[in-house]
User: Fold this.
Amino acid sequence: MINSRMSDILSPAPFAAAVAVAGTSSLYKRSAHAEQSLSQRRTNKKAKLYRMFYKFLGQVIGIAIRNRVTFPVQLCSLVWKPLVGQQLTSTDLFDSDESLKSILQQIQFDLAPLGDEMLEDADVQWVAQLSDGRTVDLSALRPPRSASDDEEDEDDDDEQFVRQSEVGDFVRTVIDVRLNECRSAALAIREGLCSIVPASVLSLLDWKELRALVAGREDINIDLLRSCTEYDEDVSPGVLSKISFHVIIFFLFSAMTCPGQCVWGT
Assistant:
């Protein structure tokens, strides 16, 4: 028999609600508030884990720089620029997401001149779709409307549609939200990178210079490489024709970018 002190320990928590099931003992079901709190804790735990991964990636990049080892990581300017403290622009976003550029241009130059009804028919609302497919409500970032506009919005659903006078603000808001989408990840990478390489050194570099320093260059100056090549005594420069030299460069570049796919001597 359980004593009174032990029964107090086994009593349901305040957030649990007892549910009596016919023919069985009492079960306990989490309340809606408890489920929401548990989901939030899981989300925070996952975000913390991702941040650790991004920080580790920054440390790996820093180690590659300190040891002068090429680390062929493929990142866009949305990530490289925050690492050196450069300001992001809409060009950085459109270079990585051309479909977003065409959609915003269509809204701004094709649909907006035709009026509010065309925007509503095209279902242009104050929402933004992120790169992972999630949608974000932008209604809180919408500029305040006049009293006459509020009277015209008899239905609450009409408030979500973008007005002709709001298209410019809508486009700027979408661009700003998408530019800051990976900001936390980029800052975590920078934190790991600065733990290996001083931040004062990174500020001296352009984002393209940092990318070339970490991932290497996409093109190779063959003439410069040829002039720096040392030949064996039994091999003259004329033996290596232009075609054979390009073949050697191809295998060297493959070995640097995809080391697992290029094995010499086989």
Summary: Residues 15-28, 257-266 have pLDDT under 50 and may be disordered.
